[in-house]
Amino acid sequence: MKTIVIGGGLVGVQTAYFLLQEGHQVTLVDRRDNFALETSFANGGLITPSHAAPWNSPGIFKTLLSSIGKKDASIHVKLSALGQYLGWGRQFVRNSTKSRYYRTIERNFALARFSQQCFHELLGEVPLEFSHAKTAQ
User: Fold this and answer.
1) Going by C-beta distance under 8 Å and a sequence separation of 6 or more, which residues neighbour residue 100?
2) Structural domain boundaries of the chain?
3) Exposed/middle/buried for residue 90 (C-beta within 10 Å: 0-12, 13-18, 19+)
4) Are 62 and 40 in contact (CB under 8 A)?
5) pTM assigned to the model
6) Per-residue pLDDT for the chain (137 aa), expressed as one digit of tens each?
7) Are strands 2-6 and 25-29 parallel, antiparallel or unpaired?
8) Can you tell me whether residue 3 is helix, strand or coil?
9) What is the CATH number of domain 1-46?
């Protein structure tokens, strides 16, 4: 299968690598002149399964309401965009109950741990050169 992976950051490179391992034809593209120059460049490149909490925590609806129209709010909600986000926003708030929030944390953590394991497998197979520090797990 021919596949295009958009974005040559940590996730894009890893995705392309494992697709190649499965026999796919892969083209990796990035809008920058080289790979890993944006999100994966700084703190966006952290591999930290401990940061698995979703943004829609219990009480997010009150936060969203108080954020409407405030440019310096933690979650910026533009008045002009409210109509576009009604369907998505309803789902976002619906999934902010305690039970769904904690279930999402568990799922996100499991996915992050799996991704981290795949990443370490990749590093064991391919000598990638980049700033990387591994701490105790």
Assistant:
1) 94
2) 1-46
3) exposed
4) no
5) 0.67
6) 999 999 988 888 889 999 999 999 999 999 999 887 776 655 555 667 778 888 889 998 888 888 887 888 877 777 787 788 788 888 988 999 999 999 999 999 999 888 888 888 888 888 877 776 666 55
7) parallel
8) strand
9) 3.40.50.720
